[in-house]
Amino acid sequence: MTDMVDMSIRWRGDGDNVKVAGEFNNWEPQDLNKQEDGSWVVKLSLAPGKYMYKFVVGGEWVVNQDMPTVSDEQGNSNNQIEVEDGETSGDSDSWEKVSIPEGNAGEVVGGANGGGMQKIAVVERVFSLGSNFDDTLEVLKENSGNIMEEKAFTDIYYDTADFELLRKGLWLRNRVGVEEAWQLRAIVDQELKTLDDLDDVTNRLEAELGEKGVFEDIVKGKLQEMTRVRGKVSKWTVGAIEIEVRKEGEIETALVRVVGDIVASLKDLESSAEKLKLVSFNVPSLAAKLTGPA
After folding, report:
1. What does pTM read for this prediction?
2. How crowded is residue 208: how many other Cβ atoms within 10 Å of its Cβ?
3. Which of 51, 100, 123, 252 has the fewest CB atoms lying closer than 10 Å?
4. What is the pLDDT of residue 43?
């Protein structure tokens, strides 16, 4: 199955009622959303490949001459973006991730007179909450946050009867209640790493437990349910910033995601964290909560 790449197309020039039309939407003009900074943006999820497109500003179809252009079979001039494989957004337990998509993937920026192409980064950082889950949601509301999604789930943790995985610093989790999703976690060099692909999880379990076979047989034959933890995720936007507030048992964190010029994005991330009363993510503290008393 082809992995989709999350990206944005942004218009920073003058004009009202800005749209974009291209091969990714069958050339049907699609609205861009006006931001507080006056720009217009639409978020897309595209398969890797090349796509021709045009901006539609005030009803006029516009080709940005300062961005890549190509001619179609009829000789019409269009802008073109190339979406390449690359890590962008997603659910990550690493405390920070900075992704600069290759080529033109990530964000395409246009202006009234061409506008130019900017190299765009996706910056994500995990913070601890300054207070608690519910208080953080109230702070988001006070800062004109818009809730996008909220869901509850139950995490079921598995291990051997003698806690062989835990003694190796590993946690096997099955998340149920929304969609079933297995995940294997480990703390490596003070950073929480995760495996989400079931084949990768199976290979790691085979190596750690010395048990060969399909995933279901390994779980049934070697592991047992150790504990259940209730949790929830609340996804918000504050301006152009995306925030996921997470509660997993006693662990409460916030993933903040910013897209833009890397220097400006890092500044926005820091200022947003301060405004929302978030604090630096503490990996040793997280490890203590996961492992419990010695």
Report:
1. 0.52
2. 16
3. 100
4. 85
